[in-house]
Amino acid sequence: MSVDQNLLDDLEWRGLVAHSTDRDALREALTSGSVRYYVGFDPTAPSLHMGNLVQIVTAMRLQRAGHTPFLLVGGATGMIGDPKESGERTLNSLDTVKDWTERVRGQIEPFLSFEGPNAATMVNNYDWTSALSTIDFLRDIGKHFPVNRMLARDVVRTRLDAGISYTEFSYVLLQSMDFLELHRRYGVTLQFGGSDQWGNLTGGVELIRRADGGHAHAFATPLVTKADGTKYGKTEGGALWLDAAMMSPYAFHQFWLNVEDEKVGELLRVFTFLEREEIAALEARHAEQPFRREAQQVLADEVTTLVHGPGETEQAKAAARALFGSGDVTALSGATLAAALTEAGAVELDAAAGLPDVVELLTLSGLAKSKGEARRTVAEGGAYVNNVRIDDPAHVPAPGDLIDGSWLVLRRGKKRFAGVRLA
Length: 423
Fold this sequence. Notes:
19 helices; 6-stranded mixed sheet; alpha/beta
């Protein structure tokens, strides 16, 4: 299979190369034939998140350009975890890590092709680490790592005063050994990862040179941050998870729909497969009419479709239209409606007590601060149940109004809505 000669240029244009080993040598490797490369994912949680998605789409770009991926799920390194600047990680049990390893593996597989001339291969570093003796590890791997170089790593320097365990201090040896093992077993010559992994990436390159006299390459993608420099990937409910059970496709779509104007172009380049001309045209239209948020809409649709599929994207869009009054809420699936209303705020009522009137519903849901305010909202024509305007403050929804047998959608005015669930 021929390789894309412009791959490195495209990666650089998309802002996906923060650091690299010798750039000319990397370019030559990527244009000379199909390079075997790997990227690793440690199962330190039951789901991958936004930061991992950067690595996934980068792996997809390389495979589409004709290179051959090895996807490593760290059943061994996940037992330890890469050092964090904030403090020591909590060590998870072997059973937990095994469970998370399978979950992460299942999440990665749909993104890559495991057939064809540059088919992907999935590997687990527990396979070559679990039987390794401490003596062999120290003799064969540890002897190649000068302690002064390890102490110079940013995260280690940050943690020295507060304290860092030997376990986390040694993580770089394990990840570097992975690169050496994949180099020996499969001829892998390129590794990439996030810029916070740069010390681990270069550690592997150096280990291959020292242990085998081999030559390898590495590059690091930048950390994706908000306009103020803080990390993306955190929402009020936690991390931006890729698992639909941990973050609904509706909430996922809403996140991308609400990114800052200053960052939308960057995120389009990083997370979508749109061509340069398409992104440039979107950015130009966005600069002229940012209030239309066309760029954010395209970003949300593209990334949600990539992660959750076109069906969930359409459901998320339909839910947003319905909840803001321009769509049919009764046409939504129960799962989508529940996710959207839970995200917006919902109150749970006892089904045995029956449904209260609209004034009580507006008050209980928090859309009105008092019953008096709720009555004024109804009198002014601003109260809606399932997108139907309610003119009578004594109106009590019928059991048949419950969507999916348990939900009501309340709205006050055009933009404020909440859910009521009978349990």
